[in-house]
What we know:
Layout: E1 23-28, E2 34-39, H1 47-59, E3 82-88, E4 91-97, E5 101-106
Parallel strand pairs: 2-5
Antiparallel strand pairs: 1-2, 3-4, 4-5
Amino acid sequence: xxxxxATPPADGExxxxxxxxVRVYTASAPGGKTCRLIDNSGDALPEAELRxxxxxxxxxxxxxxxxxxxGGGNALSLERAExxxxxxxxxxxxxxxxxxxxxxxxx
Length: 107
């Protein structure tokens, strides 16, 4: 695992520890910022599916700063991650979104 991914993703947030078999997929957003999706599931998820998830997260502009809270409130917390779930195959995973990084984790 690269030291680059051993540090917190943003704003001092630690996030779940990364596994030794972590896989990282990167892409450049239209503004030039590098976004990445980290498969920290341990399940060797299909690369094509993960690249599609990364592409769709970027198309939906879910990385970077947003003017509204995902929870529907009128206040933003820039230090906190947002969590959701994603189904890949027959299994559900936790999807944790940081400012320019998404992580897929087991429940």
